[in-house]
Amino acid sequence: MTGDRDVAVLTPWYPNPQQEWAGAFVRAMVAATAPGCGAVTVYHTESWPIAGPKGPRAAADEAHRRLLPRALRTVPTVADARLLRVPVPQVRGLTFAAQARLHTSWLREALGGEPIPAAVVHAHTGLRGGRTALECARPDARVFVTEHASYIDRLLDQPDSRDMYEEVLDRCTGFFVVTEALRERLAGTFPALAGKIELISNPISFDVPRPRPVTGLRRWLYVGTLIERKGVLRMLEAFAKCRAEDPLLTLTVAGSGELAGRLAERAAELQVEDAVTFLGAVARTRPSG
After folding, report:
1. 3-class SS at 233?
2. Mean of the pLDDT values across residues 231-238?
3. How many distinct structural domains can be found in the chain?
4. Which domain holds residue 74?
5. Is residue 214 part of a domain?
6. What whole-number distance in Å separates Cα of residue 128 and Cα of residue 46?
7. Choosing a second label site near 126 at 20 to 30 A (CA), which of 77, 103, 145, 152?
8. CA-to-CA distance for 115 and 133, rounded, in angstroms?
9. Nearest to 154 by CA among 126, 195, 196
10. pLDDT band for position 186 (50/70/90)?
11. CB-CB contact of 31 with 145 (8 Å)
12. Rounded to whole angstroms, how far apart are CA atoms 188 and 206?
């Protein structure tokens, strides 16, 4: 049995060498909270896409099961926490509920059928994190869930996923969302459980000092994937309207995605291309300037 202050963090996203910004907010939350806890272990159940009909998938699952013990090793991460990556093979096109069942089954496999030993479990996202945490935690563990998914509308449109989400919201010890829009969406869908939904923002580190003090709020910055559901096109439209009132405004866009070309075209149409800088994907080691 572990100490009462030991914490497990479950997440389907965490930075890795291939996607060094994926789940950066999860790592930031670990960095912010781990110093006040006992031992902290991050369980990253990472989706590995596979393709093929039922037969080859079954063979792939069996091969994965045999190889899994070789992949399971904890490594250091932020704030003296430990990180265990658990690969989860899955085909495309599954509902979010079906994905959550896969994440649950493979984490159980990695744990050898034993429950997560920590007394407190913090899960990121309602299903692949929250449902997995509830199914794999100790019976006496307290399970908290933080939701920050931008795909929540798609999830709630799936009947099996919506039903599973309601169960997670009902069973967990505490439930947090990172924006008021998420709170309103979930409270409207599950009114009987609306009182359980609390608002908490993603953490921001101020450890790196600014080279110069802030003298004006004229530099806009977007960091993230350039896809529709992130609202980047609306952000660009809003920037153009604000710049019409303040020509000193600038916008820097860091990230890559399917809307990169469309954003550049729209910036030109709005006649703000000289004020917008597209950096593309940015490495963590890239110096600022």
Report:
1. helix
2. 93
3. 2
4. 7-199
5. no
6. 10
7. 77
8. 10
9. 126
10. very high
11. no
12. 35
Q: Tell me how far apart the alpha carbons of residues 20 and 29 are, in angstroms, rounded to a whole number.
A: 16
Instruction: Tell me which residue of 146, 126, 111, 131 sits closest to 41, measured CA to CA.
Output: 111
What local confidence, expressed as pLDDT, does residue 289 receive? Answer: 47
**Which whole number is the average pLDDT over 131-160?**
96
User: SS3 letters for 22-44?
Assistant: CCHHHHHHHHHHHHHCCCEEEEE
Q: How far apart are CA 117 and CA 18, in angstroms?
A: 29
Give the burial string for 136-150 (b: 16+ CB within 10 Å, else e).
bbbeebbbbbbbbbe
The SS3 call for residue 191 is helix
Identify which has the larger pLDDT, 202 or 103. 103
The CATH number assigned to the domain holding 269 equals 3.40.50.2000
Per-residue pLDDT band at 54 (split at 50, 70, 90) = low
Q: Are residues 24 and 159 in the same domain?
A: yes
CA distance linking residue 257 with residue 213, whole number of Å: 32
Give CA–CA dist 16/83, Å, rounded: 11
